[in-house]
């Protein structure tokens, strides 16, 4: 007996996810050489400050999502979120924002822990991770706006950078 092929949307989601994961790794690898380590980054305080700065693009992406949600709510006259007047766009944006916060809750402490435990020479890798995370979140949002299956590219990119940062932070602190 042969197994049925997965539905086209599942296959497309898997394909987009693999492409998103590879794209995130390539983007990180391309960014690292462009970012020079700060000469004064040898102290933990400076490295943590740089890691906080590396989180700013993700904060800006989240702020953009929140502003878009506010504008959508205003234009849809759905001021009361409990009245049941949310449009599909509002519901989709709510999910993007919630997922971004969930991802950020793992990524941000991982990035800070990595920065605290690494050397100044490796800070370009930390900074690049922050930029790739923000880019992946924006691609997740864009993909979701186009079609729910489109979110797979940005979701996989986010997952790769988040889990990679978490694993690197654990590695640095265990060794």
Quick structural overview:
The chain is 77% helix and 0% strand.
Please characterize this protein's 3D structure:
The protein is mostly helical and 175 residues long. It has a single domain (8-174), classed as Membrane associated eicosanoid/glutathione metabolism-like domain (Four Helix Bundle (Hemerythrin (Met), subunit A), Up-down Bundle), CATH 1.20.120.550. It has 5 helices and no strands. The chain has helices at residues 8-31, 44-75, 88-117, 123-146, 151-174. The chain is globular, with a radius of gyration of 18 Å. The relative contact order is 0.19. The model has no long low-confidence stretch (mean pLDDT 91).
Radius of gyration over C-alpha positions, nearest whole angstrom: 18 Å
CATH topology: Four Helix Bundle (Hemerythrin (Met), subunit A)
Q: How does the helix and strand content classify structurally?
A: mainly alpha
List how many beta strands DSSP finds: 0
Large-scale geometry: globular
Tally of domains: 1
What is the number of helical segments per DSSP (H or I, 4+ residues)?
Answer: 5
Mean pLDDT: 91
Helicity level = over 70%
Name of the CATH homologous superfamily: Membrane associated eicosanoid/glutathione metabolism-like domain
Range of strand content? under 5%
CATH C-level category: Mainly Alpha
User: What is the CATH-assigned architecture?
Assistant: Up-down Bundle
Uncertain stretches: none
Summarize the biggest pleated sheet.
none
N-C termini distance: 50 Å
